[in-house]
Design a protein that fits this description.
The chain is α+β, with helices and mostly antiparallel strands and 695 residues long. It folds into 5 domains: 10-181, GAF domain (Beta-Lactamase, 2-Layer Sandwich); 190-277, PAS domain (Beta-Lactamase, 2-Layer Sandwich), CATH 3.30.450.20; 296-357, Signal transduction histidine kinase, dimerisation/phosphotransfer (DHp) domain (Helix Hairpins), CATH 1.10.287.130; 363-524, Heat Shock Protein 90, CATH 3.30.565; 555-694, Response regulator (Rossmann fold, 3-Layer(aba) Sandwich). The chain contains 17 helices and 23 strands. Strands 12, 13, 14, 15, 16, 17 and 18 form a 7-stranded mixed beta sheet that branches. A 6-stranded antiparallel beta sheet has the order 3-2-1-6-5-4, with helices on both faces. The radius of gyration is 46 Å and the shape is elongated. The termini are far apart.
């Protein structure tokens, strides 16, 4: 009689069908690439395939060292693939944390006996947790709980560990796929050229930037054959280091682009090429080298230009001291010395002007002016020089040019001075014709007009290739070396016109001559009667120029009046030679001169002699001119005595120094070296103002 056999247990069924179950499980996950969707699918199928009631999957956050819930199916999450408040378990805490810490599975038949059991929404007596591992690295944990004790078997643990292995593989593949996609996107969108070649130089990968650099090799599978590339690849493969740089000139729109490649030899035998377009960098390097060469040439020219007049001054001084020349010879020597000194000042002014223009330190100071008179005076100042050179200098002043307009007289003077001086310098014979006209404007007050200066010469002319170069700082036309000057004249003109929103153009033919055309906007002046209260123009380009906008006066009569009133001049300077020169000039004009060698002595002298005209050096020992002026102004306010005119006598022509001078209470400045006639004129202006205030 056959014996009754008991039905197979759940463990027997699982043991017999484990292989088929795992195959079906793996099949369920085919096509799921998104990591989040993958984890939810694993949790769901673990319950449905194994008949469990709960499955939670955690992933490790290695930076924070915590496990974070990513998927959960069971009593806590039945219908929704989302976790509103994901549980975070520190590594090492509870069942899940311990599995992540040790990397080993943990099966509990009675959780109440586990010392670090973390209770969730209800007590569950059985728990099975296995690590999701890739090699020795724990990626996460799969955890399942059941309300009954002794629910999970060894077979359950083996099956879940196999599921965890499948999950780890899928996670790693998904991560690698994402990393590869991100890397491919990075290379594809990289603005630099990226290529990969095999050992036969066949292109395995090429991004869009590389295709633009190599239009003849647009696709993978092409063979890259560039000059110099073979040598670069061979050296990269043979040398101990894995990188080599190669340079390739790529024709592009009839210009040569230079691409610098870094060649990396991979262990697989392939080569990665990373290219950067360094054309702009090379151009900048060439420009910098050219600028340095120009500066070197400029310094050589400046050295010659400065040493020549200095040599003349020192030589003539020696002749005056030791040769006992006649009065006529003395005057001739002194005239040469004066000419050399003025040439030195011109050099210094050119250098300072271009530095100010480049740094934007010079601002326009427009005022009403008589353009006709200004231009005529400029032309007249060049007539003697032109005659000495055997040149005919002529002026054509068009009737369209307004007589009165609002503009910066100093800038206009610099423009025309430099253009005429440049033409005289490069014209050996013939003529220089200056034409001035007005375009695009009407003679209506405040209406904008455009003034055009044309300076035409019959000089040597300029080669076409040099036209742009000569407008750069420190550049001169490459011609005979006997041309004197700094080469800054045209640069100064262009810088001024740029700030005036004007233009400079040059038309030239070698051997025939050149025409320099400057155009700049101005405003026609409104009709205004002169007033005593109009403020003087503040001139930052030439501080020694007589202020404009005042009624013209006779300086000699002012000086006579000052001498008769016994008004002293307080001369303050720490340099004995400067005091000697200024004192001799002032004494020659009949002034009583009181000398002080620093600010402290100046304050004491002013306190002793009372109100006077003060010439104040700025930089002095013990007490500088700024502090001395403030003390004098403070005492004037306290005592109520007449205000003394204080003029800064300084070698510092910087704008920021002028600001300090004015803010201290000084009235104006005279820049050393000064022109004696200009100093005399300024003293006359100051004297009449001082005498008027005293009466």
């Amino acid at each position: 009689m056959p014996q009754n056999t008991p039905p197979p247990s759940r463990q027997d069924i699982l043991r017999l069908d484990a292989l088929g179950l795992l195959n079906e499980f793996a099949g369920d996950l085919v096509g799921i690439e998104d990591p989040d969707s993958l984890l939810w699918a694993v949790a769901e199928r673990t319950i449905s395939r194994l008949g469990w009631v709960d499955c939670v999957i955690y992933l490790l956050d290695p930076q924070r060292n915590v496990l974070i819930q990513k998927a959960a199916f069971g009593p806590k999450s039945i219908d929704y693939k989302s976790i509103f408040q994901p549980l975070e378990v520190p590594v090492g805490r509870g069942v899940v944390g311990q599995v992540a810490s040790t990397g080993e599975s943990l099966r509990l038949n009675n959780t109440s006996e586990f010392h670090d059991y973390i209770r969730d929404d209800a007590m569950r007596l059985s728990e099975l947790a296995v690590p999701i591992s890739w090699g020795d690295t724990v990626l996460g944990v799969i955890d399942s709980e059941h309300p009954k004790a002794n629910f999970y078997s060894v077979e359950d643990q083996l099956i879940l560990e196999t599921i965890a292995g499948i999950t780890a593989t899928k996670i790693k593949n998904a991560t690698n796929a994402k990393d590869n996609a991100d890397l491919a996107l990075f290379y594809e969108r990289n603005p630099n050229a990226v290529l990969q070649l095999d050992q036969a130089r066949t292109v395995c990968f090429i991004n869009k930037s590389a295709q633009l650099s190599f239009p003849q090799y647009p696709e993978c599978g092409s063979k890259l054959d560039e000059k110099g590339l073979d040598e670069a690849l061979q050296k990269a493969a043979i040398k101990g280091h894995s990188t080599w740089r190669s340079y390739h000139n790529i024709p592009e729109n009839e210009e040569t682009r230079t691409i610098e490649f870094q060649v990396v030899h991979l262990p697989s035998g392939q080569f990665n090429l990373y290219g950067s377009d360094i054309t702009h960098l090379l151009n900048l390097q060439k420009a910098a080298e050219a600028a340095n060469e120009a500066k070197s040439r400029f310094l050589s020219v400046i050295s010659h230009e400065i040493r020549t007049p200095l040599n003349a001054i020192l030589g003539l001084t020696d002749l005056l001291i030791h040769d006992n020349p006649s009065r006529k010879e003395q005057l001739q020597h002194l005239a040469y010395m004066e000419f050399s000194g003025r040439h030195l000042i011109s050099l210094v002014n050119d250098i300072l002007d271009i530095e100010k223009m480049a740094s934007g330190k010079v601002s326009s100071l427009p005022n009403e002016l008589d353009l006709h008179a200004l231009i005529s005076n400029i032309i007249d100042s060049f007539r003697n020089r032109a005659e000495r050179e055997g040149l005919n200098l002529s002026l054509e002043l068009d009737s369209s040019v307004p007589k009165k307009l609002i503009a910066d007289a100093k800038w206009i003077t610099q423009i025309l001075n430099n253009l005429i001086s440049n033409s005289i310098k490069y014209t050996d014979q013939g003529q220089i014709h200056v034409r001035v006209c007005s375009i695009l404007g009407e003679s209506i007050p405040n209406k904008t007009a455009t003034i055009r200066f044309e300076v035409c010469d019959t000089g040597r002319g300029i080669e076409q290739k040099e036209l742009n170069r000569i407008l750069q700082p420190f550049e001169q036309v490459q011609t005979d070396s006997n041309i004197e000057g700094t080469g800054l004249g045209l640069t100064i003109v262009k810088s001024i016109l740029d700030q005036m929103k004007g233009t400079l153009s040059i038309a030239s033919k070698p051997g025939e001559g050149s025409t320099f055309t400057a155009e700049f906007p101005v405003k026609n002046a409104t009709i205004q009667s002169p007033q005593w209260a109009m403020p003087p123009e503040r001139d930052t380009t030439n501080p020694n120029e007589i202020p404009k906008g005042q009624i013209k006066t006779d300086s000699e009569s002012f000086l006579n009046e000052g001498r008769s009133s016994n008004c002293p001049i307080l001369l303050t300077d720490d340099n004995e030679l400067n005091r000697f020169v200024a004192s001799k000039l002032l004494s020659r004009w009949g002034f009583e001169v009181i000398e002080a060698k620093n600010g402290r002595e100046a304050v004491e002298a002013w306190s002793k002699h009372g109100p006077c005209i003060i010439l104040m050096d700025v930089q002095m020992p013990e007490m500088d001119g700024i502090e001395a002026t403030r003390k004098i102004r403070s005492e004037e306010m306290r005592t109520g005595v007449q205000r003394s005119p204080i003029l800064a006598l300084t070698a510092d022509a910087e704008e920021k120094t002028f600001e300090r001078i004015l803010s201290s209470g000084m009235d104006n400045r005279i820049v050393k070296p000064f022109d004696p006639p200009v100093l005399k004129e300024i003293m006359g202006k100051v004297m009449i103002q001082f005498m008027s205030n005293a009466s």
